[in-house]
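User: what does the whole thing look like in 3D?
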Amino acid sequence: QSALSQPPSVSGSPGQSVTISCTGTSSDVGSDNGVSWYQQAPGTAPKLMIYEVGSRPSGVPDRFSGSKSGNTASLTISGLQAEDEAVYYCSSYTSNNIHILFGGGTKLTVL
Amino acid sequence: EVHLVESRGGLAQPGGSLRLSCAASGFTFSDYEMNWVRQAPGKGLEWVSYISGSGRNIFYADSVKGRFTISRDNARNSLYLRMNSLRVDDTAVYYCARVGLLYRLLDMDVWGKGTTVTVSS
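Assistant: Here's the predicted 3D structure for the full assembly of 232 residues, as structure tokens:
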């Protein structure tokens, strides 16, 4: 199973919005299997930011939102803050032969 | 407070074996599905293996299938990963991660700090 496809980097200024895309196939992102997003700051473990395409765990600011269209999912961060600078990973899974897939990661730089 | 603490990883030679453990606290361990996820130096996340709360359902990434074995001891609140026939490309930080209750298996809401496994001659 191939990893999901993400842009290597995105950037934005404080207060702006950025969107990170995640492209898979009809067997994973494009199916009914859900999409999650994780945030990983340097030297730390990943943190779940979005699950079920667009749901936020408690404690995650509503500046973070997720959506999906076809085989591509998106994470949008609005009102960028310096603390948002991190690597973001999308995730989905294949249901015919259960494999959890991650994207290659997108480094967000807050200018 | 909810915690996952991985045991110290270590150094192994190619072809060797290691066993990782992950101690859970602060929640009813048997109620939760668990995953192992790894991250090679400077690389992205790679899912390794999944186990259901009862231990009955288990899945592996193709890269480790036949070499790694996931297991759990609910009485000891512990998760394990037995790694055999280790290869240089198994070198990574290994995380144990809890699947959120009633979440899908890919939705990991609690992670350990990770433990480093180095495979080198």
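In plain terms: The longest strand of chain B covers residues 18-25. Chain B has no helices and eleven strands.
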